[in-house]
Specification:
Blueprint lengths: L1 H52 L16 H5 L5 E3 L5 E8 L17 H12 L4 E10 L1 E3 H15 L5 E10 L1 H6 L4 E4 L4 E3 L4 E2 L5 H7 L23 H25 L8 H4 L4 E3 H7 L4 E2 L2 H12 L5 E3 L1 E3 L2 H16 L13 E4 L3
Parallel strand pairs: 2-3, 2-11, 3-5, 5-6, 5-7, 6-10
Antiparallel strand pairs: 1-12, 4-13, 7-9, 8-13
Helix pairs in contact: 1-11, 3-4
Length: about 350
């Protein structure tokens, strides 16, 4: 009888042991993740302070025939040095959504539109840089950010240096817009491109706020000060005003395409410029790009435009240990999502962006 009374207790203990083991494993997993996040945050803080306290840190190619290294780094003039002192075409990559001020990360801020634009303008003044290869893999971005890079490419060309755009997987909308400043465009047959147009997405979270019992009461200087508000329905008058602005920015895009792609039939351009996307093969047929291929094709075209046989593509590498930390930190931020922020639903954005 006593033995039977002990059995329920033993069974209960047997059930508790797996639960304890599971809890310990979960605790260890949490500790590991907290350690990783703490290390990333510490690295970001240290490198951010270094960048903030070190003036003049911009992408810079070493002057041909000059000795760089510690002397240049000591002056705070160079974040990168050129892999080789030969003359050639500089490569500037545009990746992801083109925007300005949309990222507060310590590292990835160097990939903002203004940083890319500044880089292109600096390269224009380098004697060893004879041309520019614009390597694009982007669905587009905000209007002003896209136009900033577009204008910097025009500045580069004003130095009598050619520009070739190379489309990767996607070069749509704003990614396509910036390439309109290039002399030639190369894409793969399966590249997704086009999407000529403007979009503005105004969200309405009024129903959600009603369920939560939250009421927003704006105090404004004029009736249109909160136009596009996410807390109330949009009026017909407001929609008309916003449409007028969209039409204006669309015309800016349209004119850029018309100037950059003179081989496209003028009567057909309004049809192609209705926001549709097309493949690189189709883009070649209608004159939106100049050649099908990859980096080698783009390099051949650069050789033709510059008259330099087998032109070299100039690349950059870390100039010192802190630069290596900077590059690694940017990569880590992107992979862990630390450089992205939650979409701001309260402020509509006007964008040259392929979205669905």
């Amino acid at each position: 009888m006593e033995e039977n009374k002990e059995n329920p207790i033993q069974a209960l203990l047997a059930e508790e042991q797996p639960k304890e083991t599971k809890t310990k494993k979960e605790g260890r997993a949490i500790k590991i993740w907290l350690t990783v996040l703490t290390a990333v945050f510490t690295l970001s803080m240290i490198s951010g302070l270094y960048l903030a306290l070190t003036p003049g840190k911009t992408v810079r190619l070493a002057d041909s025939g000059k000795e760089e290294g510690a002397a240049a780094a000591g002056k705070g003039e160079s974040l990168f040095k050129k892999l080789s002192a030969e003359e050639g075409a500089a490569v500037v990559k545009i990746r992801g959504i083109i925007q300005e001020g949309g990222d507060n990360g310590f590292f990835s801020k160097q990939n903002s539109a203004s940083a890319i634009s500044r880089r292109i303008r600096e390269l224009a003044d380098k004697k060893e840089v004879k041309a520019l290869l614009l390597d694009i893999n982007s669905p587009g971005g905000t209007v002003a950010a896209v136009q900033d890079i577009y204008n910097s490419i025009l500045f580069f060309k004003s130095k009598n240096k050619p520009v070739v755009a190379l489309f990767r997987d996607v070069a749509a909308s704003g990614g396509f817009y910036v390439a309109m400043a290039a002399d030639k465009i190369v894409a793969q047959p399966g590249t997704m491109t086009g999407s000529i147009g403007v979009i503005m997405q105004a969200n309405n979270i009024e129903g959600l706020f009603d369920k939560l019992g939250i009421k927003v009461t704006p105090v404004k200087s004029g009736k249109h000060k909160d136009i596009g508000s996410a807390y109330r329905p949009m009026t017909e008058e407001e929609a008309a005003l916003l449409q007028e602005m969209i039409n204006e920015t669309y015309q800016q895009f349209y004119q850029a395409v018309r100037q950059g792609r003179p081989n496209v039939e003028e009567q057909m351009l309004p049809i192609y410029a209705d926001g549709r996307v097309f493949t690189g093969a189709r883009a070649k047929e209608i004159g939106m790009i100049d050649a099908l291929g990859g980096e080698e094709t783009a390099q051949d075209i650069l050789s033709e435009l510059t008259g330099i046989k087998d032109i070299k593509l100039l690349s950059v590498r870390p100039n010192n240990f802190m630069d290596l930390i900077y590059m690694s930190g940017a990569s880590m931020e992107n992979k862990l999502g630390l450089s992205s922020k939650i979409e701001d639903f309260t402020t509509p954005k006007v964008s040259y962006l392929w979205t669905y």
